[in-house]
Amino acid sequence: MKAGNLRNYITIQQKTLKENSNLEKIESWATFATVWAEILPLTGREFWASKQVNSEVTGKIRIRYLSGVTSKMRVIEDSKTYEIEAVIDTDNRHEELILLVKES
């Protein structure tokens, strides 16, 4: 992976449960990691193929390999929020991850 392509600074967040003073559980988001990434819209062919599996995927984000990233997390980049639909470890080589995302 070429470092020059990683020009977007993103924050990966995970859901957490906290208790308030009334002992009620409240969902919130906590930072899991902040990393450099490449954000790419899907090409026409990729978008068509993704509709066959999951009609919500609208783009992909490439990052260096980071253990623990799951599809239950989300990505924040500037003012945009992306829900992670799938996490792909390219060739299982632990060098990069491709996150298939939808903008929310």
How is this structure best described in words?
The structure is a single chain. This protein has 104 residues and is mostly beta strands. The protein has one domain (3-103): Thrombin, subunit H, CATH 2.40.10.270. The protein is 10% helix and 55% strand. The chain contains one helix and six strands; from the N terminus they run E-E-H-E-E-E-E. The protein has a six-stranded antiparallel barrel. A hairpin with a 2-residue loop joins strand 4 (74-77) and strand 5. The protein is elongated, with a radius of gyration of 15 Å. The protein starts with 7 loop residues before the first strand and ends with a strand.
Summarize this structure briefly.
About 10% of the residues lie in helices and about 55% in strands. It has about 100 residues and is mainly beta. A hairpin with a 5-residue loop joins β1 and β2.
Question: What are the main properties of this structure?
Answer:
104 residues, mainly beta, Thrombin, subunit H, 1 helix, 55% strand, elongated
Range of helix content: under 10%
Number of β-strand runs = 6
User: How many domains would you count in the coordinates?
Assistant: 1
Low-confidence stretches: none
Give the CA-CA distance, first to last residue: 27 Å
Indicate the mean pLDDT: 86
Q: From the helix content, strand content and strand pairing, which structural class follows?
A: mainly beta
Fill in the CATH topology.
Thrombin, subunit H
**Rg calc:** 15 Å
The shape is elongated
| Tally of helical runs | 1
How do the SSEs run, as a string of H and E?
EEHEEEE
Strand order of the largest sheet: 1-2-3-6-5-4
CATH architecture heading: Beta Barrel
Instruction: Specify the CATH class.
Output: Mainly Beta
**Biggest sheet statistics:** 6 strands, antiparallel, barrel
CATH homologous superfamily? Bacteriophage SPP1 head-tail adaptor protein
